[in-house]
Amino acid sequence: MRLPRPRVPDSILLKGPGAILGLTGRAPAWKGLPERRGTPPLSSEPPPGLPQGRLLHVRRHGEIFLRDTGGDGPPLLLLHGWMFPSDLNWFRVYAPLAKAGYRVIAMDCRGHGRGLRTVRSFRLEDCAADAAALVRALGCGPATVVGYSMGGAIAQLIARDHPAQLAGMVLCATSREWSDLRMKILWNYMGIFRMYIELFPRDSWRWTLRAAGFPDSPTTSWIASELSRGSALDIAEAGRELGRFDSREWIERVSVPASVIVTTEDNAVPPLKQYELARSLDAPSFDIPCDHNGVVVKEIKFDRVLLKALRAVEERGRGEGAARRRRAETSPRRRRARGVVPPLASAESRRRASA
Length: 355
Hints:
The chain is an alpha/beta fold and 355 residues long. 43% of the residues lie in helices and 13% in strands. Helix 6 (181-188) packs antiparallel against helix 10 (232-244).
């Protein structure tokens, strides 16, 4: 029997999941998404141009879904935000990044989209371990990680726990913590949110889109179908995990090159928190005037700012590498090997000289 739609006011839908999905504001996120010609309105056909997707078995982790443009360019690992699988988060930047010469890799995190399903509770540390293991399995590391929102928290954990797999990181619309009162209230409602999407797995997202004024179309059908792939249990627990995440005690000890993209009109992650993250990392920040959904808004041109942030990370990496080489060249051991500094006298020769 088909359950009737619950009487949830449209304002509640838009202020909750609708706000996170970017269905409000000056530039609705999903306007202008390319569609395949002749696609029926209720079809969940993806937009053209997505990189090839596949499942990869990663030992001791499981089968991880990823998209990979391939090639020999510098590898980028894209980590999506909360609730959004990779395609919904990154579809507008896949092509520009690949055109710029990067090998673009995007994975679905646990419980999101086609991501891993395990008996373990969702933990951000496990997502970081999955990402590092994927880089090792692909043999492309170290990679630059680009993390958006929740993906930024995962990137920080990779830098702390798996630095060997990391060449640098770009942190977008993210923070060191989500512990302010407004966010705590949101995390406390995760049980209700989970029940809502569990009771109406196929229709909950479609109702939210309709409440925002988006009629049924190939675009909205694809968005709703992608969101419904996620595990309600894992997505709710991921929200609670973000509420528990706090990197303030250790983030300053992270030594990988980094840059921060600040969404200056963000209603989900206050810009002040994003600037504080940049200061903690001693990283350059790049402002972009948009809300939390900026990465998927066509008019925002998020890819242009992302490319600038990536170039800054690469320049910092080259600078730090040159500094390390200079320190190595001027070390006493290296200078003795080149005959610049005479070798230290042995203990026996010192005793003879003193006699």
